[in-house]
Amino acid sequence: MGGKKTLLASGALVGLCAILLTYLGNPANMGFCIACFIRDIAGSLGLHRAEAVQYIRPEIIGIVCGACMMALVKGDFSPRGGSSPVLRFVLGFGVMVGALVFLGCPLRMVLRLAGGDVNALVGLVGFVAGILAGVVFLKKGFSLGRSYRQNKGEGLGLPIANVLLLVLLLATPSFLFFSAEGPGSLHAPLLVSLIAGLAVGAAAQRTRLCMVGGIRDVVLFRDWTLLSGFLAIFVVTLIGNAALGNFHLSLADQPVAHTDGLWNFLGLAAVGLGSVLLGGCPLRQLILTGEGNTDSAMAVLGMLVGAACCHNFGLASSTAGATPAGGIACVAALAVMVIIALCNMPRKA
C-alpha cells in the first residue's frame, strides 16, 4: 500500500474524476456520492418508486469491480466474513438513513464543500462528532468479533452481482426504471462513468482511501497520512470548480442540499458513528467488498435496503429540508448504533 504521495495522487484522481463526471452530466457537486448512487440503483431496480432518483449508476459498479480486479492482480483478494453480519447490515442501514437525511455520503460532503456549500461544513462538524463518539467506543474495546476465511466464490458474490447489473443495464434496460427528471436523470455517459469508477476503485484499493479512517487515525495516532487523500480531493475539486465557474459560496440554493443545520449535523453524525463501528466509510465498504470481504458486502446490502426504505417511507430529505419521519429515523439510527456499541464491549470477568 502507498504512502502519503500515493494517497495524494489517489485523491487527486478522485477529484479529477468528480469534476469530469459533473462536467459531463452528473448532478452538481455530485461527481461521486456513494449513498446517492446506491439510492439511485435501488430505485432503478424498483426497490423504491421515487421517480426522481432512479438510475443504474455505473460508478458504483466500476468502484467494486475496479477494487476486485486490483485485489486479484496484487494478491490482496482475501474472502473473509462471519463478523456479526446481521449487525453490519443494520449499521449499513443506519448509515444510509443518516446520509439521506444529510443528502450525501462523506465523499459528497467533501465535494459539496469544494463547491462552496456551507451546509456541508455543518455536516462536517457532525461527521467528526460521530467519529469521535465511535473512537471512544473503540478505546473501550468495541468489536463486532473476528471474521473467518471463506471460499473464493463467497467473496466474489457481490462483485459478480455488479457485473450482472451492468449486463442488465446494457442488454435489457426495459426491465429497469429510469428517471425522466430530477437527479436520477442527470448522468455522465455510461462508458465514462464506468471507467471513472474502475479507476477510483483500483486507486482506493491500493491506498485504503477512507475519510473515516483518516479522521480516526488523526485522533488516535496523530497520523495525517490517510486523511491527506481526502484533502487532495477537496483541493483538486475546489480548483476545478473555480476554473469552471461552479464555485458558489452560500448556504441557500445549493444543488441537492438543504439548509436545516440540525439535521445536516445529526445526519452525518450517524454516518460517522456507524462507519467507525463498521470499520470504514461507505466508499471503503465498497472497496472491501471488492476485496472479498463479505462483512462489508452485508453493510453495502444494508445501505441498499436502507435507501429503498428511506424513499418508500418518506425518511429521505429534500431541498426543502428533513422530513419529520426522517428526523425520527435519524435519531433512532443513532440510538441503535449506541446500543450495538454498548452490547459489543468486552465483558467483565
TrEMBL record:
Tell me which InterPro entries the record gives. Answer: Seleno_YedE, Sulf_transp_TsuA/YedE
Query: Among its keywords, does the record have Transmembrane?
Result: yes
Q: Which UniProt keywords apply?
A: Membrane, Plasmid, Transmembrane, Transmembrane helix
Lipid biosynthesis: is it a keyword of this entry? no
Instruction: Give the stretches traversing the membrane.
Output: 55-73, 85-109, 121-138, 159-180, 186-204, 224-243, 263-284, 296-316, 322-343
Source domain of life: Bacteria
Q: By what name is this protein known?
A: Membrane protein
Question: What organism does the UniProt record list as the source?
Answer: Pusillibacter faecalis
